Amino acid sequence: MSKLGIFVDRKTLSNSSQLMALVKIRDVAESMGHTAEFIFPVDIKRIPKLDALFIRANTDPMNITYVAARMAQMYGIPVVDDPSSIQICADKINMYMHLMKKNVSMPRTKFLKKKELDAEQAQQLFEELGTPLVLKEPSTSFSVRVEKASSVDELLKIAKRFFKLSDWIVVQEYIESRFDWRVGTINGELLYACRYIIPSETFKIQASVNGHVVYCDVESVPADQVPSGVIDLGKEAGNAIGKGLYGVDIKESNGKLYVIEVNDNPSLEGGEDEHYPDMFHNIISYLMTTVDASIHANEFSPEFSCPHGFEGEYGLGAGTAFANASALVENDVYSSKMDLSER
Question: Considering the entire predicted model, what is its pTM?
Answer without folding.
Answer: 0.82
